[in-house]
Amino acid sequence: MKTIDETAYMTAKFLLQIKAIKLNNENPFTWASGRKSPIYCDNRITLSYPEIRTFIRQRFVDIVNEQFGDVDVVAGVATGGIAQGALVAQELGKPFVYVRSEEKKHGMTNQIEGEIKSGQSVVVIEDLVSTGKSSLIAVNALREKGCLVKGMVAIFSYNLDVAKNNFATAGVDLFTLTNYEKLIEVAQEQDYIKETAMESLAKWRENPEKWSEERMNG
Fold first, then answer.
1. pLDDT mean across residues, the chain
2. What architecture (CATH level 2) is domain 4-210?
């Protein structure tokens, strides 16, 4: 079984290798929120690589077993956590559901798709955590159904203070395979980024909003 640091290193290396995470300090990306960022993450790409997909699934399973023990249901956060969650549920032999960001506007108007009952224990699978807002919407939906959410596991987190505060306030334990700090360490080691870009990347991590405003106004 791999250690936490080995898992973080290998996950970051894989994500950079297949360009699931892209770094571009000179021409920053525009997120859906409109903010500028030197980093863009699309972990869905991992599903196209069997070796990496299997690695992520098994590390998820290891964390669930080690940190949460037996659970009744595995829940994926739509949309990035659906496929990952289904793989984990299959490996654990557990039922699977997924949680939308809001109720459907038609049909059964479900927010949670699949069968789940009050009193069941749940572990939530996510692909990416930025501020934690969308992830915790899923947690709240499960709690409103009377479920006991044991915690969440994600592939990657930016480790932003706002996310740490949001998860702490919600009382949710979050475990990730890798994070921003490890990614930058591996990217530098593998020559994905220049030494001159490190200061700017550190400033973004320290204050993403200010960094974005400076780029948008510059």
1. 92
2. 3-Layer(aba) Sandwich (3.40)
